[in-house]
Design brief:
binds ligand LU4QQ7F6; four-stranded antiparallel sheet; transmembrane; MFS_trans_sf; five-stranded mixed sheet; single chain; elongated
Length: 681
């Protein structure tokens, strides 16, 4: 017995391996593609930030809505195994479609590096994304439930370990996806999964279960309405009004599922906060300094998961249990929510620090102006009605001057005095450029927010007497100013050229600054030494390391909330509705994403830290509601309830046999475990 049990255990580890590796490959592909999706929208399809972010969140939401479809197909028709295979093929076709949509040569007839027919690329990429959402969402609830199906009812400890390992694989896939291309992994997902085919425990679909569930619920509601008069005796549960027509077992199963789904109502709020890691927190990072921006953002969450899941599972949870505390799944989920709320309090505190260092940007009714003087002498600049600035040659005003009106008149103390009227941009920042010929002074629009991704915005004013060529920029005419170019942090070299003459200058950049470089007429004679730098926006000074606590808190919350939720959804579902409940669980994530979308559309509170605190307070309120709901929830053993109902109905011999077999197996396992313990002693 000992030998055969060891063999069985090894076999189980082997096919669980195939399932978790399958999940690893699938998540690797999904996160790999997701990581570059916004960049593809921004720089290939040339969408603006808002559209790119909205379509991105809509795609993520769709990925978490399609599980309903996958669950229906699996539980009612194909079974989990075949559903995973078929939808993986859909997924692979989606990835290939998406990959084809990124080949600009297909429509780039004039070979200028940009596609000629954007509609074709947009249509193809949208088709690809829909197929990927169908694939990834469709197989997701099935893989988790299929993994769970490999365990028997008495193996709850092993089942919990499975879900932890499953989550580790998700995050290992997500982590590695940032390093390797995603396409290859779709094929490997399928191959790995099919390789284990002969070993899995495959439960058969039990007819169109979702349709039966809907009909049964519909009948219960109709029947209840028909018997609304007080002369009819009340029933214990409203679903009992389906007793007249439907099987008691189906009614009992629906009651179990509805009980859990009701409990899920407050859960999307957790995901609303969680999903802002990729939007608001990423934006926050762009206003901070530190040279690990992209690495931090894309890898800190999976790295922490890979560390925290084993610590929680092997150390923290057993320790809590040893202290005699009952840390039930629903309590863990509530604590998880509170951790996420604390993460947002931490984000708010970081934001307050950042705000102290941010420039004072104009409000929507204000305009800001700075003056740059490339004239040969110091100038006295008067801006009507009462602004007086003294600006050295090749210097600038100390900071922006804010106006609550747009029409201004500028006078220079030249001989004769030069006066010119300008109209400023409402809500904008501009620089008044005074060139070597001040009569042609002009306004140039400045950046009015921190440059993206911690980059630096730079531009040049040509004070030289002829056209100049600067590395990577178009040629600049005398007295003209270039548009801003974004440069990364670190040392950058620029070569200035006019005919045979050239000189080189270098600058070291930090994060998120903006500069205007003033090129004097002597630029070639002093080997670029005389180029002066005007700081339009200071570099970021709050270090990104300050974001680590918020990432740590939200990931701790995720381990408590998400891993537990996954296990809970499986353990509380009747056998024929495991995937449906997994889909319900994933839908909470979809709703969370949709809330993020709505919040992004509605706009922000004037102060970002206040928005973070608002979200934290909302989640605390929701977690209180959830803890009250959880207090009234009684954990069930779906198999036990099903057996009881069957017993009440009179068991069929076939089922009885199956159950006896399972009991025998359970006894065998227990005896064996005792045997192993005794041998150890
Ligand atoms: C990468 C995340 N830490 C993660 O584990 N995500 C899970 C849960 C979810 O987002 O639904 C996943 O991708 O399955």
């Amino acid at each position: 017995t000992l030998f055969s049990n060891k063999k069985k255990k090894r076999k189980k580890i082997c096919y669980i391996f195939f399932i978790v590796v399958n999940e690893f490959c699938e998540r690797f592909s999904y996160y790999g593609m997701r990581a570059v999706l916004v960049l593809y929208f921004r720089y290939f399809l040339l969408w603006d930030d808002d559209l790119a972010t909205s379509i991105y969140h809509a795609f993520v939401a769709l990925c978490y809505l399609t599980p309903i479809l996958g669950a229906i197909i699996a539980d009612s028709w194909l079974g989990k195994f075949k559903t995973i295979i078929y939808l993986s093929i859909v997924y692979a076709i989606g990835q290939v479609t998406m990959a084809i949509s990124t080949i600009h040569d297909i429509t780039d007839a004039n070979r200028d590096g940009t596609p000629d027919n954007f509609t074709f690329h947009i249509a193809l990429s949208m088709l690809g994304l829909i197929l990927i959402a169908l694939g990834t969402g469709g197989i997701k609830p099935c893989v988790a439930a299929f993994g769970g199906d490999q365990f028997q009812e008495h193996q709850s400890r092993q089942l919990n370990t499975f879900f932890s390992v499953f989550y580790l694989c998700i995050n290992a896939g997500s982590l590695l996806s940032t390093l390797i291309t995603p396409l290859k992994s779709v094929a490997s997902t399928l191959m790995v999964f099919i390789a284990g085919s002969g070993m899995y425990v495959k439960t058969d679909p039990e007819g169109n279960i979702m349709w039966s569930v809907c009909k049964c619920i519909g009948f219960a509601i109709k029947n209840r309405f028909r018997h609304r008069s007080s002369s009819y005796p009340k029933r214990e549960h409203w679903m009992d009004w389906a007793n007249e027509k439907y099987d008691k077992l189906l009614i009992a199963q629906i009651k179990m599922v509805l009980k859990v789904l009701f409990l899920y109502i407050p859960l999307p709020m957790f995901w609303t906060l969680f999903d802002q890691k990729g939007s608001r927190w990423t934006l926050q990072a762009t206003t901070m300094s530190g040279d690990f921006v992209s690495i931090l953002i894309s890898t800190v969450n999976p790295i922490l998961i890979l560390t925290l899941v084993p610590i929680m599972d092997r150390l923290i949870f057993p320790l809590i249990q040893k202290c005699g505390l009952n840390f039930s799944p629903l309590k863990r989920m509530t604590v998880g929510m509170l951790f996420a709320a604390m993460a947002f309090v931490s984000a708010a505190l970081v934001q307050i620090e950042i705000d102290k260092t941010l420039p004072n940007f104009p409000s929507s009714s204000e305009s800001q102006l700075k003056v740059v003087n490339t004239y040969s002498t110091t100038l006295n600049v008067t801006i009507s009605p009462n602004e007086h600035l003294l600006i050295e040659s090749f210097g600038s005003s100390a900071d922006y001057v804010t106006f609550d009106h747009q029409d201004i008149t500028v006078s220079l103390n030249t001989n004769p005095v030069i006066t010119k009227a300008f109209s400023l941009i409402k809500g904008g920042r501009q620089t008044l450029i005074i060139p070597s010929d001040p009569t042609v002074m002009y306004l140039k629009e400045d950046v009015k927010s921190k440059p993206r991704e911690g980059k630096n915005a730079i531009r040049f004013v040509n004070g030289y007497t002829a056209d100049l060529n600067i590395t990577n920029l178009d040629s600049i005419e005398p007295s003209a100013t270039t548009n801003y170019t974004l440069v990364n942090q670190g040392k950058r070299d620029f070569v200035l050229r006019h005919g045979e003459q050239w000189c080189e200058f270098s600058r070291k950049f930090g994060f998120g600054a903006s500069y205007t470089f003033l090129i004097p007429s002597t630029v070639f004679s002093d080997d670029c030494e005389s180029i002066t730098e005007v700081e339009d926006m200071k570099p970021n000074s709050v270090h990104m390391a300050l974001q680590i606590p918020q990432y740590f808190l939200i990931t701790t919350g995720e381990v408590m909330f998400s891993v537990t939720g996954l296990q809970f959804s499986y353990s509380q579902a009747p056998k024929n509705m495991k995937s449906v409940l997994q889909a319900g669980w994933l839908c909470t994530n979809a709703v969370g994403n949709i809330i993020v979308l709505i919040v992004a559309e509605l706009g922000k509170l004037p102060k970002q830290w206040a928005e973070y605190l608002l979200f934290a307070s909302l989640l605390v309120a929701v977690s209180i509601i959830f803890s009250i709901m959880a207090y009234f929830y009684t954990y069930i053993d779906p198999a036990e309830i099903e057996a009881q109902v069957r017993k009440e109905q009179g068991l069929e011999p076939e089922e009885m046999e199956k159950e006896t077999l399972e009991m025998e197996e359970k006894d065998e396992d227990q005896k064996n475990e005792q045997g192993v313990k005794q041998t150890k002693i």
